[in-house]
What does this fold into?
Amino acid sequence: MIEATDFKNAMALLTTAVHVITTEGNSGAHGFTASAVCSVTDTPPTLLVCMNHSSRSHAHFVDNKILSVNVLGAQHEQLSNAFASKLGSKERFKQGSWTQLATGAPVLDDALVSFDCEIEDIQQVGTHSIFMCRVVAIKHSEQQGGADESLVYFNRSYHQVGQVENI
It folds into this structure.
């Protein structure tokens, strides 16, 4: 049997993009930092997002049935830490500038890209929920030329990948 610690140590060597996942509904805006986001299919456009059941905002995502996946750039390390911290939702959303697309879930203005989604199905696996999310709108960064670097997580620390064009 594989021990949880051994699995976590091995998974730390899997480089992942860093995202802030958000929702909004009757109880206000909520969000968390996530690395477990994956494309499922392009027809229809679908993502999966994994979230720990013990997260204090878990019930809000389940109740609202909407979310936005905001893909973070290198400049968003502080924002990522805020959404992974014990800060309350209001304090988290004071960082960054936010707008909305089709669903009303908060979209980070300067995210590399944001996927606005409706949660179509929720699967329970161990300690996590897997949200199957239909993408209903996409907003790309308005940064000139798309030259931003992506914020990634590898070996328990942040890194940046991508090339900035020098003109």
